[in-house]
Amino acid sequence: MAEEKKFAAYICKGCGLGERLDADKLAGIAQKEGKMQVVRQHDFLCNADGVAMIKNDVANEGVTHIMIAACSRRAKTEAFYFPNNAVARANLREGVIWIRPDTEEARETTQDMAEDYVRMGCAEVKAMTAPGGNVNTGSNRTLLVVGGGLTGMTAALEASKTGYPVVLVEKSGALGGWAARLWKRIPVHEPFKAPADTGVADMVAQIAADPNIKVYLNSTIAKTDGAPGRFVVQIATESGAVSTEDIGSIIQATGFELYDANKLPHLGYGKSPNVVDQAGLEALAKAANGGPILRPSDGKPVQSVAFVQCAGQRDASGEHLPYCSGYCCNTSIKQAMYFKDSNPAIDTTVIYTDLRTPGNGEDFYRSAQEKGVIFTKGKVATVAPNGGSCMVNFHDLILDDQNAQIEADLVVLATGQVPNSGVNIDMSAEEKADEAAAEAAAAEATASGAEPVQFSKKVSVLNLTYRQGPDIPQFKYGFTDSHFICFPYETRRTGIYTAGPVRRPMDMVQAREDATGAALKAIQALENAQLGRAAHPRSGDLSFPKVRLEGCTQCKRCTVECPFGAIDEDEKRFPLFNESRCRRCGTCMGACPVRVISFENYSVDTVGSQIKAVDIPDEFSEKPRILILACENDAYPALDMAAMKRNEYSAFVRVVPVRCLGSVNTIWITDALNAGYDGVMLMGCKHGEDYQCHFVKGSELGRYRLSKVGDTLKNMNLETDRVKDLEVAITDIDNLPRIINEYAQQIVDMGMSPFKGF
Amino acid sequence: MSANQEMAAKYKNSFLKEVEDQVEMGEWVKMCMQCGVCSGSCPTNFHPGWEHPPQEIFMMIRAGKREEVLTSPSMWMCTSCYNCIVRCPRKLPITHIMHGLANYAHRLGVAPKNQPTRAFSTLFWSNAIATGRVNELKLSMGLYFKDAEGKINIGEGIKKGLAMKDVALGLLKARRLNPFEIFGGHKCKDQKGIAAMLKKARELEDKRKALPQSGASR
Question: Do A376 and B62 touch (CB under 8 A)?
């Protein structure tokens, strides 16, 4: 079938297209210039009759390639769903008539615009083939959960309940993690007034009774190889035995460590046994087992206790954690209740700067106040041992008293979470040098007879065999998030999801929710992998990158740049695509200097031929042409929505959606300028620290690549303003038309490109 | 031992406990979450007499600053506008707590001596209970003939009286002021009954305040 191509164009006259545009002329263009073998017009193409017409042509006329000139490719996707055909859409509604005034003088330029989009659609569809789906799939349906804490156990149980087998790997000798070390937990059910049982024992029992869950204790991941649907994971047990498991997708729930309180000597840690961190207090409470909690120094019942919030957290100096761990306020409230519930006469004071008790924590906070826990807004400067007790010196922020003091038998430091995220694969050379220096200094100190200095070199969690490194790329402060707002649990390694405090600081309620969400995402990922489809954000996409290896120069740009680590290198140093790991962003395609990477329905050719198909009026026509390459995730929907609001913009622009700014190959820009376009606008997502790119690094890599376009412009003797790079958000519905119009005016003022007509 | 010393000894260093036990609505103080909305809502904000806004008073109570709180004129500045009660996200009866604190400080005899609200309240109360009815002429004269230190000052009284003479004449004309009220004025019918009622009320009040206040009523 691939040999016998038959092209058909369908021109819709609904939604006002018929009244505003000359459909016959468009049909003529599709036939003559577009070389479409079948050209049909319809009054209402997306209705049952119109769709039946197309289906009939496919079935009986042998049509393989469909060009639909109607609305935006984002509209009517269900009606115009032809999975076995190559489909291109010319956007005449949102792209033309909705953004142009319905006036006599605008009629000509509006028609010009529509004709160009028809030409572009025809050119695009001719360069496409119907995506066949990834053939290199795996069909393993087992989930691997790394980490047997609350998050890991929840993920394992939830996945098992939906019918998927789970392999649960835990580093220590028992399941439960931090949750098992708690005396009680923050309540999760109304009335949210008192600490509750952790429920860990019940979960451990459920897992033990679940034949669907295979547990490895005292074990770590020695090696993770493969791709979603066909991971091969080696699990090393403490005894030295290595087991191999075939895995479909992975959930990393490796949790956190408490921030090391030894770094807080000014808060008395290490100076007095009566200064403990929150884990230390849980241990004391467990030891007390419901009786009075005893002071570590002399074993007397504690009569007064002070809680120091934000100890080594929310630190602006850069010395300690800069962030808020979010759970510690509620934990201190809970721990204060350990005392108040057993003996209301015990003085409990929580010294905080901002009490943060999200959700039902507010009820819990109020309950603690009712029980007589004192909350003092202040910043603790020092904690000094004072005989058997401790003196907490703080700045009272309400009374502005710099020398406020509280004496307490026991001081608890709320130190916060540090993620167990493995090796930072993006570590800069400088940071690597720092780490090496610290290691050397530690070795030297130990060698010189001092006490062994502890130096914790980060150990990899997953030991991935990926070219880009053994662990999940980190987001901020070592947390392994990927797209903060839109896609929780996603990482930059397809089929591997992170959940719980390794992803961001969180409490147990959030961790359970995270675990459940990640389990569902992991199930989706392995199911998609089996069907040869992409995971988010191009969910369900059947296209995948194909490479013409005979043209490859082994420059490694694709293997280095792929935001998802999908491309390894084979023994001969050629790129080795792991299609199931691919998210179809096309960053490799944009990076490739010899243009040998393409997708069946998206390639250098599909976009390049659209650019070339546009009719460029001559220098004296007063009709400049501006090419817009718009990211399909944010910029293109923003343009569509601007159209829905009937925000008008210039008729000089021709918009081509791209999968990501990262997929933009510089040849498109050079070609456009050579063809006589007067300007090029690139619309991609925000990059950098607060990036909005759906492919995380795509827009950043694309921008870096395109920053070199200035040289091209100089070589061509063109003004540098002929190419404009814009950061566009999906909300720029009103801004974007204004920016386009301003740029169009700028181009008019600059004058026409001298490259027309060659 | 003064009443003040007695209470201080009884509650040692736990002023919060003392407030909870002794001050009307005092059991609410611990529920304050220090948001400061009360302070921002108070119409006496920026007034020089407004030493500590309610939020700060609550914090001082928790910090055990007994003397500073009880001798402060701040709670006497409350105009009973109820803005703070309306806005408090924790539903603290702030106005009532302010009055409760003022009343407690007054009872212990540590409230600022010539605080105008306190002076006026004392004058008003003794005026009202004398006959069971407020004698407005006597009340205003009582105010006029006192200086800032609370001492009787004839010159000051005449000066203030003259300054207000137009208002007084107007009231006379409208028959709202009777100069003969100076000789005692008219009284409630059952003088003895009023006195007995007040005596009983005082008894009940003292009895209640001797007991710790009942716990927070939520």
Answer: yes
